[in-house]
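tool_log.txt
---
The assistant was asked to compare two proteins side by side. It first ran the structure predictor on the initial sequence, then on the second. Raw inputs and outputs are pasted verbatim so the downstream comparison step can read them without reformatting.
(1)
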Amino acid sequence: MSFALLLTLTAVLLEQAPGTLAAASGGIVKMMGVGEGRVSIAEGDAPFEYSVTLGSKPESSVWVATKVTSSTGKSTAHLRTKLIVEPSVLIFEPEDWSGDKVPQQKFKLIAPEDYIAEETQLFFVEHVVASTSEKFSMQTVAFEPGNRIEVEVEDNDQAAVAMTSSSFRSVGPMVHGSYAVGLRSEPTSPVAVMISSTGGVDISFQPSTIYFTREQWHKPVQVRFEAQNTSKLSLLAASVVHSSESLDHHYDQSQCHFLPSARFAPFETKREVL
């Protein structure tokens, strides 16, 4: 059977509602190690393996294929963090049966490590078969415990704008200082971080707006600030304030987290959090 034919049969099968693949007179595809059909894995962890076998010897080749969808029903092809199944197809041949030996093969569920904060995601792994063997035909085969596995993928990334503590020095009436700003996770859209001051002291920042993209989000940016005709005592009453804008809701101002906080006094001593 050609792979093109398998894909055609798979597409037809997946249009059917879950549970319509079972029939009392057909063969059985058993999946072991998945409990009642729901498993949980963490992003970046070792692959989760489960075994697949047939309930009886087939008369011809049996192909078991998979398709992954998200809980929204959409394909995962657009996701940077996605669930991968390897291999995509298992092939059982009649000659694999020898005496009492019942061949088993394995699928691996892989949640690749990435740096995008996406919370916990739910995926569905659907299984279908293709064979010229009558009892393993599309109309008669049954899956145990079912043809679909629910897979919960736990994300391990935190979206936040993080800052180091500031350092400064005074030269006459002028005060110079600096600190670094960076992101804790890869954004799905560019992020702008705006910097300003409050407290009645005119502080200039270079840069006053920082842009992070998906290509260079992991590179912290040094911010230099300067205040003229003032003193350290005056600056103690001032605050540096950060805000953000992004189409990535994790980094939009309404939901963005700032570490240690969005506002700080330039002369506070803070633990570095970048």
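(2)
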Amino acid sequence: MTKKSKLIALWRRIWHRHSKPFFIVAGSGFLIVAGYVLIPWLYQPYIRVSGNIVTLSLHCVPQSLQLESLTEHSVVKGADIVVKDLEDGRGVSIAALLAPPTRGDSKTTSGLMLRPEDILKAETFALEHGTRSRIHARIEYFPTPYIDLSSAVITAANTGRSDCKDQELRADALLSDLNRAPARLMRYSLLQDKLSDLLLSVNESAGNIVLACMMTWSLLLVAELSSGLWRSRFADDETIKSIYSNYASRAPRELKVEGPETLVNAIYLQVLRRLSFARVIGPALGFMLTVSSLVAGLHPSMHSTHDTFYFISSLQIALVATFMGLAMRVLAEFSIRAHRSSADRMIELIVRND
């Protein structure tokens, strides 16, 4: 027994004895690392507001207001600060100035501010009407199914009032100040939103790469089909015998001993394995690419920006992928039948010859 064999035998004994604890420790470590990465990624308390209008109650006239959303497609279209008397219904509405949105880490921060003269006008109206007045900010986003708000930072105007302070609202505090809009508190990010964002970012480039592979594969299947049809229908007997002789010269010895029928069937099985895989993987890739393209095309950001071109492009990828998957299935099916006929013809010629 050589030194190498002894080491291999020792390793096998150690492995059989300690493999179970190893897998337990490795699995536990993987779960800890996965939890350490996924929990902060998914646990992000935020408010999901249905529709594209957010109405936020304010205690004082603000100088500026910053809203942070967890989606990059949430872009503010316009905003107003409204001071209203609850008894007689009168009020003033002041259009706020919008700051360019900033994006980063899958978040969008939108800011708005008031001019000094507008702050004075709103504050004067609020003081005249006293406790009957209510102040709120009405923020309108570009059309979107929902808005995910993570925080609101309110900078109070410097009017000399002691009860007006800067505020940062999150979670329950933010939800309590939202009104006139269906909203709910979300304790964690939905995995469907994360996967949808991922598909949106990679669908177009990855989809075209997959389509190129499917196109190349389809051309190879056309070649397989042509080869099978030629051998089963058009090649003469001498050519078929020559092809068999070529196979037999390269075949393993045990196949030669078992006879020509076994040898031809073994060759056919190799082709069948390859074509059967193409017959299954073609429709599977087509369907997967179809679904991913529809997910990307129906992403909320496409709705908010009215990106008709991207939607049509995603729909085009989906339809082309379906077509290519079906084409691969049909080509693979006919290729299998053609090669089966070719194998039967070769067996008949060789056995009859013998």
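---
observation on (2): Residues 192-353 form one domain. The chain is about 60% helix and 20% strand.
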